[in-house]
Specification:
This is Succinate-semialdehyde dehydrogenase. This protein has 14 helices and 24 strands. The chain is an alpha/beta fold. The protein folds into two domains: about 270 residues, Aldehyde Dehydrogenase, Chain A, domain 1 (3-Layer(aba) Sandwich); about 190 residues, Aldehyde Dehydrogenase, Chain A, domain 2, CATH 3.40.309. The chain binds adenosine-5'-diphosphate.
Length: about 475
């Protein structure tokens, strides 16, 4: 298997150190690829290239930039099967889900190719007869994007596509667990004929590469998806050069099921939300709050549906729940379940995991697990589990349900299941979350703004808000 390379200034390059790090298949522990162990110097060279390329790229017309994006989109769709296989191999999610992610990720490219043409400024009536007031929107400049392992394709396109559409140049640092999909995406960008230096890719030491991004005043924007802990660190570091910053961080999504819900549809919704990517998404339902009158019916049907989900290697037919990303991920899930059971929760189904690889850090699986009788003092109710475990808690009144849902430092996604229109609106408006799925367990889509309140982050990705964050506003006051 050949080593992968980094993409800097339009060329595929080796790391200065000559060192590569392994990417393991989390289902089997097999080697999925080897990727350059780059660091500070390579990141600076990528910034040099992006900085140099900015003048020409930002001077392209929106239509010209859109044309490159549409070509990239077409190439991705033509290579969908190959990209999805790479994604499953390095990340573990079932192949059907990986195909879904490639298609979903590609949608951002298509949508922002279209949106590039609608970056409108404005004119404002002046207060003097001899003046004109004009407002321009211009690209912020060089963008550094740092992405996580749970969506190796979509988190890349959701950042790169609006940045390129706006006229910015970019440097991507993908997660060390899942760089292979992003490398393939970049090969297709190169094939699309993107001018050199416009999009660069560095892999390796996150701290050193991050330091290069954060120290360099030429980097005008950081766009990050990952843990709240690293997000806070980047926000502090960004202060020194006053960078623009977008952060999409952790979540602890409440999933509210009211007495008047269609229980079948609520169970379908919770299965879609909870078990996608083996529970490893920041909008996965993490606290299932069920009103007392619906609890027995909901738990019985949830148990039946959840226990039927097949756990295994994502490349095998019929798998719905793939492996956890690594040993640390597995240990956190086990710990949350053990802690809940020790504090009096009831095991409805699942509750066990297994390890099937010679590799210490791969091959970890966990059964779909439902717990009932969960209380607020259990760790699972306070921290993001990032695994296929669903804690069910009951509540009495609408007010109590809303209060429990909002009782979190996080505010990314929330879900509400009810057949009452007025309740849906009432509750939806009171939830302190950036995304509310009403009778919908899968709310993400390219044309809508995705992002969180409170400690779940800053800024939005997707929709018109998603390109705004790559634009500066310039007010020109013109004397005539
Ligand atoms: P997770 O816990 O999901 O792996 P992280 O926040 O640790 O989330 O990682 C998300 C991304 O942030 C990854 O690409 C990772 O390499 C990167 N990262 C981690 N630490 C730093 C850091 N100190 N500076 C810059 N990037 C970092």
């Amino acid at each position: 298997m050949e080593n992968s390379l980094m993409f800097i200034d339009g060329a595929w390059v080796e790391p200065d150190s000559g060192e590569y790090f392994p990417v393991l298949n989390p289902a089997t522990g097999e080697l999925a690829g080897s990727v350059p162990n780059g660091g500070y110097a390579e990141a600076v060279r990528a910034i040099d290239a992006a900085h140099l390329a900015f003048a020409d790229w930002s001077a392209h017309t929106a239509e010209e930039r859109a044309e490159y994006l549409m070509t990239w989109h077409r190439l991705i769709m033509q290579n969908l099967d190959d990209l999805a296989a790479t994604l499953t191999m390095e990340q573990g999610k079932p192949l059907a889900e990986a195909k879904g992610e490639i298609g979903y990720g590609a949608k951002f490219i298509e949508w922002y190719a279209e949106e590039a043409k609608r970056v409108y400024g404005s004119t404002i009536p002046a207060s003097a007869r001899n003046k004109r007031v004009v407002v321009l929107r211009q690209p912020v400049g060089v963008v550094a994007a740092i992405t996580p392992w749970n969506f190796p394709a979509a988190m890349v396109t959701r950042k790169i596509a609006p940045a390129l559409a706006a006229g910015c140049t970019v440097i991507l640092k993908p997660a060390e667990q899942t760089p292979l999909t992003s490398i393939k995406l970049y090969q297709l960008l190169e094939q699309a004929g993107l001018p050199k230096g416009v999009a660069n890719l560095v892999t390796g030491d996150a701290v050193l590469i991050g330091k290069a991004f954060m120290e360099d005043s030429r980097v005008r924007k950081i766009t990050f998806t990952g843990s709240t802990e690293v997000g806070k660190l980047l926000m502090k570091q960004a202060a020194d050069t006053m960078k623009n910053i977008s952060l999409e961080l952790g979540g602890h999504a409440p999933f509210l099921v009211f007495d008047d819900a269609d229980v079948e549809s609520a169970v379908k919704g919770v299965i879609a939300s909870k078990f996608r990517n083996a529970g490893q998404t920041c909008i996965c339902a993490n606290r299932i709050l069920v009103q007392e009158g619906a609890a027995d019916r909901f738990i019985a049907l949830f148990k039946k549906e959840a226990s039927a989900l097949k756990v295994g290697n994502g490349l095998e037919e019929g798998t719905v729940i793939g492996p956890l990303i690594d040993k640390a991920g597995y240990e956190k899930v086990s710990l949350h379940v053990q802690d809940a059971l020790a504090k009096g929760a009831h095991l409805v189904c699942g509750g066990e995991g297994f390890h099937q690889s010679d590799e210490e850090d791969a091959g970890y699986f966990y059964q779909p697990t439902v717990l009932s009788g969960v209380t607020a003092d259990m760790r699972i109710m306070q921290e993001e589990t990032f695994g296929p475990v669903a804690p069910v808690v009951t509540f009495k009144t609408e007010e109590e349900g809303i209060r429990m849902a909002n009782d979190s430092v996080y505010g990314l996604a929330a879900y509400v299941f009810t057949e009452s229109l007025s309740r849906a609106i009432r509750v939806g408006e009171k939830l302190e979350f950036g995304i509310v799925g009403i009778n919908d367990g899968a709310p993400s889509t390219a044309q809508a703004p995705f992002g969180g309140f409170k400690e779940s982050g800053l800024g939005r990705e997707g929709g018109k808000e998603g390109i705004e964050s790559f634009l500066e506003t310039k007010f020109m006051s013109i004397g005539i």
